[in-house]
Amino acid sequence: MRRRGYRPPALSLARDVLVLALETLTRRSSARLLQRLSRPFAVQSEGASRLPDAPAFVLALNHFSDGASGASVRAALDAVAEARPALMERVLMVGGRRDRVRTGALARVFARVGTALSAWLRRRWSAHFAVISMEGSRADLGSLRAWKRVAAERLSVVFPEGIAGYELGAMRAGSGRWLATIGVATVPCAVWFDGERWRVRLGAPIAWAAKAKAHDAQLGLAIASLLPEFLQGEWKRDLARWRALAAPSTAATSEAL
User: Fold this and answer.
1) For the chain, which residues make up each domain, given as ranges?
2) What is d(CA 112, CA 99) in angstroms, rounded to the nearest whole number?
3) What would the DSSP string read from start to end of 79-131?
4) How many CA atoms lie within 13 A of 252 on its CB side?
5) Most buried pick, 43, 83, 89, 209, via CB within 10 A?
6) Tens-place pLDDT, residues 138-183
């Protein structure tokens, strides 16, 4: 498979922003917005039968830079909606917020406008946003606890990677450890663009290890195992080691049966 990234067409991106603004200004249902935004893309998905029957779980997916994160979320939600449409009524997008230092007068003006617009949209669309404040590389515990209080009733969508890129990067420190304690299942999800359509692959809920220090690695391996090799990044090597370690126990189990 050829390596192809995805950059949203300018007109498509402008349309999506306009729809978001109109829906927000008129205070219409955010569920309708999510359903509408997911439709323009051709999406091929697999693994929907692995979704838990529970009314709430965390969808943990990879994400991309160059403005493609929004498109990948839409593809993932489209795949989930096809199997469990009722979940779309209570989607919760979980994202980080970090104070950034801008240099130059023009950059500071754009930063202030962007911050004000983002805050306004979050207030208008607050039922579907959980913002985690970041202090350096660490998440604010108060923000995390606020999310945890509502996680039992929502489909939460998270990007556990520290930095968006093309290949899957390192998990944000502590992301797996936190998800293991949140009280609902974590479903790994891989999303990528194959040149013609978005591909979505859903995995089985993660069975967390007894040792908390292994949870970040578990999370990364679970997502990487669903991606094609050219998007696995450095996780490809870790996956090979993990599969080699798992092979003897699998063989022993087969012989016993």
Assistant:
1) 10-256
2) 11
3) HHHHH-GGGGGGEEEEEEE------SHHHHHHHHHHHHHHHHHHHHTGGGEEE
4) 5
5) 43
6) 556 766 777 788 888 889 999 999 788 889 999 988 899 989 999 9
